[in-house]
Amino acid sequence: MELTDNLKRVKKPDWLRVKLPTGKEYVKVRGIVSEHKLHTICESGNCPNMGECWGAGTATFMILGNICTRSCGFCAVATGKPKPADWDEPKRIAYSVKLMGVKHCVITSVDRDDLKDGGSIIWAETIKEIRAISPETKFECLIPDFAGKWENLQRIIDVKPDIVSHNIETVRRLTAQVRIQAKYDRSLEVLKRLDEADVKTKCGLMVGLGETEEEIYETINDLSNVKCDVLTIGQYLQPTPKHIPVAKFVHPDDFKKYREYALGKGFRFVESGPLVRSSYHAEKHIF
User: Fold this and answer.
1) DSSP E strands, the chain
2) What would the pLDDT profile of 209-256 be if each residue is shown by its tens digit?
3) Residue-range domain boundaries for the chain
4) Superfamily of domain covering 3-10+20-285
5) Which residues are registered as beta bridge partners of 142?
6) How far is CA 244 from CA 16, 114, 231, 251, 252, in A?
7) What are the beta bridge partners of residue 205?
8) How far is Cα 164 from Cα 73, in angstroms, rounded to an integer?
9) Widest CA span in the chain
């Protein structure tokens, strides 16, 4: 049965209540993002932690536009034909990071399979620009798989971010339905190549898509085998009725169980909980 055949809506449990974003810092960050025409995955991805993170004066910037060339069944980011790459974007992002005065920032991007370099040149330039004007700022890069074109991944390796994250998102069996154009083993290869280049690595996994507990443990084992350093595990939430429905709301006790198992497999940090997303508490994962 296809995941999208399960159209019955599962009622959200009490532990998934999210507070509305408020506060002076939230308003300040929203103003900067709007004024400088920046894209954030916080907004484009309907992140449930936007109020908490923006209220703390932090945000995850999304470069290379806000239209993705892929159509993953879980993701709220728009799919279609992206606009041409904006070569002024690295400077705008760096200036905004400086303006916010953040000690730690996260950069991510849409997939740009339409570009020969997969967007990796702008990725590298953004990192260089941030370092040039905010040398004290630590940052995480949440990268795509660059369609397995390893020369594009090498551009990220060459500029040596503090930590590089690449999300496997779901278990092997569900990858073809959840991530459509992605490949489970290719994501493992991305993390493996980063580790072999002495880059600290991080990965995100969603649960509640119809996977079994055994498959979750298998995925944790696979990530441990490629020496991934940091793991985040969170509940999948259906962003719109057109996306894959939630198969199950995983209980907080199960998230604790997965966290303990992952720590036992050697991960340096594990964030595991219903509202955890890949950039959640990112500032704690620099080591």
Assistant:
1) 60-63, 67-68, 78-79, 104-109, 138-142, 163-165, 201-207, 230-235, 269-273
2) 999 999 999 999 999 999 999 999 999 999 888 899 999 999 999 999
3) 3-10+20-285
4) Aldolase class I (3.20.20.70)
5) 108, 165
6) 18, 25, 23, 20, 22
7) 169, 233
8) 24
9) 52
